[in-house]
Design goal:
heterodimer, A: alpha/beta, four-stranded mixed sheet, 19 helices, 35% helix, B: alpha/beta, three-stranded parallel sheet, 2 helices, 23% strand
Amino acid sequence: MTIDHKYGVPTVAFHTQPFERVVRSVTQLNGMPRMRQVFVPQPVMGKTPQQLRAYIDGTDPITGRPVMQEVIEGLTMPLDDEDLKQITFERSTPRLVEPDTEENLHRLFQDNLWTDYLPIILPTEERVAAMLAHTSRKPDEVVGHMRATHFREYWEYTVEKVAVNAVMAGAKPEYFPVILALAATGASARGSTTSSAAAMVVVNGPVRHELGMNAGIGAMGPYSHANATIGRAYGLLSQNLQGGSVPGLTYMGSQGNNYAYTNVTFAENEERSPWEPFHVQHGFKPTDSTVSAFTGCRSTSFTLGLREKHWREHTRHMLLGMDAHNPPTLLLDPLTAQQFIDRGGFTSKEKLIDWLYDNARLPASEYWDYQLIQNYIYPRATFGEEPWASQLKVLSEELIPMFRREDIHVVVVGGETNGYWRIMGCNYQKTISVDEWR
Amino acid sequence: MAGGDKITVLNPMGYPPTVTHKPLAPRLETLDGKTVYLVDCRFDDADIFLKQVQAWFAEHMPGVRTVFKPISSVYTRDDPATWEEIQAKGDAAIIGVGH
């Protein structure tokens, strides 16, 4: 869109068929609803040149017209009155929903795609006011901006809007500062990505105990009111405050992701961890309360403990099983954290991360051939961005790191019923003070 | 709250930005003798697709000069250097393949 509008170059854009609604929506919201688009069948990825040539020689699956005729016309047909019409969308969201019965309102919220299809608590003024009473911030203060994906527009939200979604999720009012801090990250738990990502939330500091959060047995499962509803609130506020999470429009996850219901929300087991808490690693004091948001959660691998003879190989195999574009965060039961010290001598998380970085390596040719590396890293490497530019120069069989060191993380969670541990493929976004949102 | 009573609740949606119209660039009278940039967004084999578009022009509209041009980085980043090159040296652009 930029090149057509800003640089004055007539442009036609090719897209694949399933993205028609997304494309129409994005061009409309960017003020260019008449941007010239041509659609071809899905997929392009993996097709031979001959198969792709058949797309080009064929018809647009949306309009039924010849593909290249649409391209030529898109570049040469004069703009008409509709193109030249000055359109301005003055959109606003009303504060209240039209009064109705509880039954009808529940149906309305579901029909408007404002829920996750699990029962919600209706956000009455009394309930929202009770939520607002647990922060010193004013209801109309802007908390942040969020969007479903990089090519959509940012939406804005206030403290009161976050409170509405917190009520819907069933959160207790005392959880509200944690939920506000999550909203303040600006990181969406309802990203539109075709890869079906969810979020992960790690809470640190005294607030874990104040709210009765679970860091022990079943911490990542449905065994804590606070864990469950804070994580659910993060999902609901993301979908509603960013302007929706509608399949085929503002959500394109091909398979979907069950983690998205409560977004893997838990407290770090700081008391049983042999290492520094996660928030202290990121510049906070142990007495600070924080929440850390991770996105891109899709893949998980697991095993039990660390065997004396082959723990290095087992761990390496788990790392190699990750997609190279989805860096590892180790979620270690305290028993396993201690085993990493006993077996490997990793007396700090940083030492363990160094080892993981050094051992998660692939032959260069294999690394660069990953589709997501081709899509997102290879282009950056070819134009000189480090460390990838240097890694692009190595011989094809030489081992290169799968991940940047700074993208690897370790969190301790679990109740020591056994030494199970997992690797979550995800992207750390940021850590926010909960205390500042009290 | 009795089941049949009407109640008032708050709207959970955030605030969207105001959308203003952005005009399209004037279209060309003809592509004959013009330079059309085929802009590879570097996603999911778009390069193979656009080279077939290039082949189509060579066969069916040989009077059109095509330039295959990958964007400078990933499609998530703006690329003013490429847009300025196309503005200076080209007449039109075809971008693909979006998803």
